[in-house]
Amino acid sequence: MELTLFVSELELEDKTRRMYGLLSPADFTDGHKAHVAAESIRRGLQLSEADLHNAFDRHIAEVAPPLAGALALCRTRGLAVLAAGSGPGFFSPTPLSDIPPLLLHELQRDWGVRALACRSLSRAEATAMREV
């Protein structure tokens, strides 16, 4: 599955501790969305915004306001995005080739965020042992 990873040079001091400190029981789900997303990926289906959840997503603005601005810009343009882990990166299930160049330019210019084309790995690729 193709997706887009958005990366930033933003450095956040003590980010992981701060982000975990903001979580509450209200940030967690029963796991249903994770199972649906995993099954979609297993079947090679494109994920929709409704399939995605990240417990850190609603707290990004408290720790990284510039990242929240970049996420908000994407969302106002109709691009589904979600924090990757606890940030400061984020991703979209949309392939890079489908994202409007103007949006990519604005993210770079206004927020210092650049986009990278990525793809998920199959189970075999992810677990393969390679000698280097």
Report a brief summary of the structure.
The chain is an alpha+beta fold. 39% of the residues lie in helices and 14% in strands. The chain starts with a strand and ends in a 5-residue tail after the last helix.
Structure explained in plain terms:
With 132 residues, the chain is of the alpha+beta class. It has one domain: GHMP kinase, C-terminal domain (Alpha-Beta Plaits, 2-Layer Sandwich). The protein is 39% helix and 14% strand. The protein is built from six helices and four strands. It has helices at residues 15-22, 32-42, 60-63, 65-76, 101-111, 123-127, and strands at 2-8, 82-83, 90-92, 113-119. Strands 2-3-1-4 form a four-stranded antiparallel sheet. Helix 4 (65-76) runs antiparallel to helix 5 (101-111). The longest helix has 12 residues, at 65-76. The two termini are 26 Å apart. The model has no long low-confidence stretch (mean pLDDT 86).
- The radius of gyration is 16 Å
- Strands of the widest sheet, in order across it, are 2-3-1-4
Q: Number of DSSP helices?
A: 6
Low-pLDDT ranges: none
Average pLDDT, to the nearest integer?
Answer: 86
Oligomer: single chain
Give the CATH H-level superfamily. Answer: GHMP kinase, C-terminal domain
Give the termini distance in whole angstroms: 26 Å
Largest sheet: 4 strands, antiparallel
Q: Assign an overall shape.
A: globular
Helix content: 25-40%
Order of helices and strands: EHHHHEEHEH
Predict the CATH topology. Answer: Alpha-Beta Plaits
Which CATH architecture is right?
A: 2-Layer Sandwich
By CATH reckoning, the class would read Alpha Beta
Structural class: alpha+beta
Number of beta-strand segments: 4
**Per DSSP, what share of the residues sits in E-state strands of 2 or more residues?**
5-15%
Number of domains: 1
